């Protein structure tokens, strides 16, 4: 199933996130992706903490990043997180990093699988989450 949901946050590259060249270190990007994803879900009323309290984990099973231009120390940027797909037990997000000059600096995608915290096996997406996402479903 395809979805049309997008959420945007504005961030700034901190000194501790840069490498010797003054660029955002590539290993920090997955942290930004998590921040974007958590805030996007929070905007829908979905809390990671509440999911985990209910025995539901949401690990990343696939991560793809394409670096197009560097982000530098103290540079501000927008992170746009889009929910693009939902299956019976997984969700797919795409991400766009855009600098203040409206240039795309990085694109990424992740697949996350809903997992039972006890047996660590994939599980169906909880109905409360399906309900929260329903309004963004694209009917073809």
Structural class: alpha+beta
Spatial strand sequence of the major β-sheet: 1-4-5-6-3
Q: Helicity level, as a percent range?
A: 10-25%
- The percent range for strand residues is 35-45%
**N/C terminus separation:** 9 Å
Q: How many strand segments?
A: 7
**Class in CATH?**
Alpha Beta
CATH superfamily: Hotdog Thioesterase
CATH architecture: Roll
Biggest beta sheet attributes: 5 strands, antiparallel
C-alpha geometry: globular
Describe the structure.
The chain has helices spanning 29-43, 48-53, 127-134, and strands spanning 2-12, 56-57, 60-67, 76-86, 90-99, 104-113, 115-116. It has 140 residues and is of the alpha+beta class. The termini are close together. Strand 5 and strand 6 (104-113) form a beta hairpin. The radius of gyration is 16 Å and the shape is globular. Strands 1-4-5-6-3 form a five-stranded antiparallel β-sheet, covered by helices on one side. The mean pLDDT is 96. It has one domain (2-134): Thiol Ester Dehydrase, Chain A (Roll). The chain is built from three helices and seven strands, in the order E-H-H-E-E-E-E-E-E-H.
């Amino acid at each position: 199933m395809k979805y049309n949901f997008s959420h945007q946050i504005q961030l700034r590259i901190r000194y501790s996130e840069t490498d010797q060249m003054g660029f955002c270190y590539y290993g920090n990007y997955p942290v930004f992706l998590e921040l974007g994803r958590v805030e996007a879900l929070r905007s829908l009323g979905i809390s990671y903490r509440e999911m985990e309290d209910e025995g539901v984990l949401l690990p990343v099973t696939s991560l793809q990043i394409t670096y197009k231009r560097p982000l530098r120390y103290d540079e501000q940027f927008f992170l746009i997180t889009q929910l693009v797909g939902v299956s019976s037990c997984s969700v797919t997000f795409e991400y766009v990093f855009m600098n203040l000059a409206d240039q795309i600096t990085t694109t990424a995608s992740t697949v996350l699988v809903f997992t039972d915290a006890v047996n660590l096996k994939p599980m169906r997406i909880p109905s409360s989450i399906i309900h929260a996402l329903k309004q963004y479903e694209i009917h073809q």
